[in-house]
Amino acid sequence: MLPGLALVLLAAWTARALEVPTDGNAGLLAEPQVAMFCGKLNMHMNVQNGKWESDPSGTKTCIGTKEGILQYCQEVYPELQITNVVEANQPVTIQNWCKRSRKQCKTHTHIVIPYRCLVGEFVSDALLVPDKCKFLHQERMDVCETHLHWHTVAKETCSEKSTNLHDYGMLLPCGIDKFRGVEFVCCPLAEESDNIDSADAEEDDSDVWWGGADTDYADGSEDKVVEVAEEEEVADVEEEEAEDDEDDEDGDEVEEEAEEPYEEATERTTSIATTTTTTTESVEEVVREVCSEQAETGPCRAMISRWYFDVTEGKCAPFFYGGCGGNRNNFDTEEYCMAVCGSVKSQSLLKTTQEHLPQDPVKLPTTAASTPDAVDKYLETPGDENEHAHFQKAKERLEAKHRERMSQVMREWEEAERQAKNLPKADKKAVIQHFQEKVESLEQEAANERQQLVETHMARVEAMLNDRRRLALENYITALQAVPPRPNHIFNIIR
């Protein structure tokens, strides 16, 4: 149930020159894609030059529904006939993420899973089949499932054949980001070992982190970029504060050599990120210090809703900020809080996995169950004439939180499978079963929260309608009893 990954899901994606079927459009340099990171402006791929660019309106940030993502694809690519979206198989590293109202930014790097904006009639991906590898496919016309589900089907099928999943693609769309089948390529384990050995010979420090299904095929240079990009994301805690105090002249540093090849740009990313933080240890220490501080209201008396990371619970929690003073464990949204401090939790979980997995692979780390904060916030807000807007906002918050939690589990799963690579087949199955149950539990919890939201919304709407009926009836009776009678007024009330 591993995605190529969520979510805020690792090899750097190389833009493939491909022909996108459009009505009269020439071949495009890159595939249409959108990427989101809550608290920052959405990004989209410029299909003419293969570069990521900020939201053209300067206002749009993360979107909570697949329907909303499809609509956003259609907005940023009006000249293309966008008909569907699907999660990408691999995460990407994107620089220069801007906050709202900023046109240019310093080099803020984040690693995210983009969405591919599918153009025209659906055409399945063309998969390369290396020597000694097998091309397989599965279809079920009675099933309509997500990218995540079919990725799991492909990965488990390869695992049962004692092979590794090399590449995969969706088949037979049946909804927005939903499909009835999957095509995939399985490669022998020996082939994988050969690739890893050759990569290690080229890059001594190629410490592979989580990635998509074919992480073990990624070369060492990409892994180094990913590793440093993760440091950049963590270092954002201090950079965000510094950026707000900078003059607009800072934006001049962005993309000074925009025309360089992608490989050179990747090397530059590594160089920039290395100068931002001295060592991985120092970055982790800064983040741990910030995220371990207690929530502070400060000396002022405003009541501003903020989030802080509760290190004992391993998750972000709400508190009221006074408006001045306090400390840096203070974030605008839960998503941004987890993006910065979630690594504190995941690092401890990773350590636990490495210590226990070889002895007992079934004893895997578990993600702390989080309370339905998005639902609670909505339930605590009394219904009013803006009920529908409150409901939509709560729904978007819930979906964003669910994606973040799923992304965290996927990262843990990928790392656990890497640790269990040399274990017996039965132990590998135990790893898969453990995380399958965890993902199913998260899906069920999200479904319950969605149902609670909808039921509450319907009850409030019904109550509002009843109030309006009661008021209309009272006005009607009052109009009937008026002296002298006012026929036109009565008619208007009835109408």
Automatic annotation (TrEMBL):
Predominant place of localization: membrane
Annotated stretches, region: CuBD subdomain: 131-189
UniProt region (GFLD subdomain), positions on chain: 28-123
InterPro entries: Amyloid_Cu-bd_sf, Amyloid_glyco, Amyloid_glyco_Cu-bd, Amyloid_glyco_E2_domain, Amyloid_glyco_extra, Amyloid_glyco_heparin-bd, Amyloid_glyco_heparin-bd_sf, APP_CUBD_CS
Residue ranges occupied by any BPTI/Kunitz inhibitor domain in the UniProt entry: 291-341
Residue ranges annotated for the E2 domain, each copy included: 374-495
Compartmental location: Cell membrane; Cell projection, Growth cone; Membrane, Clathrin-coated pit; Membrane
Region (Disordered): 196-284
Signal sequence extent: 1-17
Role played: Functions as a cell surface receptor and performs physiological functions on the surface of neurons relevant to neurite growth, neuronal adhesion and axonogenesis.
Full protein name: Amyloid-beta A4 protein
Native source organism of the sequence: Sus scrofa
